[in-house]
Amino acid sequence: MAREQVVLAYSGGLDTSVILGWLIEEGYDVHAVYVDLGQPCEDRQAILDKGQQIGAKTCQIIDAREELCREIAFPVLQWQAKYEGSYLLGTSIARPLISKICLQVARQVGATVYAHGATGKGNDQCRFQLAAEALDPSIRLLAPWRMERFRKLFPGRTEMIAYCDQRKIPVKASVSKPYSSDENVLHISYEAGKLEDPQVHGVDTVEFGMTVRPQQAPDAVERVAIGFEAGLPVSLNGQKRTPLQMVTELNAIAGRNGIGQIDMIENRFVGMKSRGVYEAPGMTTLYFAHRVIEQLTLDRDLVHLRDRMAPEIAEMVYYGFWYCAKMDALLAFIREAQKPVNGEVRLGMYKGNLLVEGRSSPNSLYDEAIATMEGGGSYNQTDAEGFLRIMGLPGRVQGRVWPRKY
User: Fold this and answer.
1) What is the rounded CA–CA span in Å between residue 334 and residue 294?
2) Any idea what the CATH number is for the domain that residue 35 is in?
3) Catalytic residue among 180, 197, 328, 396
4) Distance of CA 366 to the CA centre of its chain
5) Among 58-62, 84-88, 200-204, whose mean pLDDT is lowest?
6) Is-catalytic flag, 383?
7) 148 with 191, same domain?
């Protein structure tokens, strides 16, 4: 009888190395797929060698960094979407893309099962599964951490490390970890371990990988100029950049100036609160610069409408609803809404702070002749009399009918 083919979203770490071995022992042919989104992988060849050593039928690395920035992160940036006002969705954005790529491999190798290493307590299981089912409703999802017999075998890290030792699977892991981290080109997230105590000083606990602490940043302002076309970042200091180049170069510049550190308690999709520390220097800078150029170029009612909708976009991304009709329509809306957002923003960076030093646009709606507080100008202040009489009409009528105490 032919063995069933399964594609595994493979990181090369402890959990997915154990899952790879366990799936093979369960009777599957496993195709391990490492989706490169900018993780700090020490040795790509070692990842491939490990997967093959464990017994994967095929093991491959697919570079999706540019696609992550261009197709997902930058449209979310255009929305100015932040989950619960703070989180820039760096991990949330990545998971649907991992599922998409794994399903592309599944189609190539004839796999009917898609497996991942997300736990049954977190958000990632939702993002992996909702994306996969939307893209291929026929695929069967296999999440070992949601299976009781798997958890009985591996109740903790001690048992997983022992499993790897017995099978001579090389993993870099220890029984005791102060926290766990997840990194891609957009950010690094830190959670669990000591960070589960909300009274622990998160920024002092983690060892940041992208940023320095603001107190350790240089004592001088560092300046950058970011150019936008249709709401998308396209140039840095006058030089054209791809989305990936833009993010990685700003990660380095903003990171050395202590930009983009967040410590928050957030509400997971599965209902619990969790504590996370994040660093996203490049994307924090781009969100800030994008807002600045919008202030110059977008109509008031349009930007207010976008801002009312942005929290819903953030929720959809955070929960895992990237591939759905509602998101398709909203992405089409933002592409149209962002057409006037062209120009350049000049920023200063200083010890964790972003400072606006100037902005310009061929589509600027700012008219100094109208806005000036000096005498003259093209705005007739007498016009405000009629405007306010009309705006105040409902209040005057209500005031006569229902007098308010004051």
Assistant:
1) 13
2) 3.40.50.620
3) 180
4) 32
5) 200-204
6) no
7) no
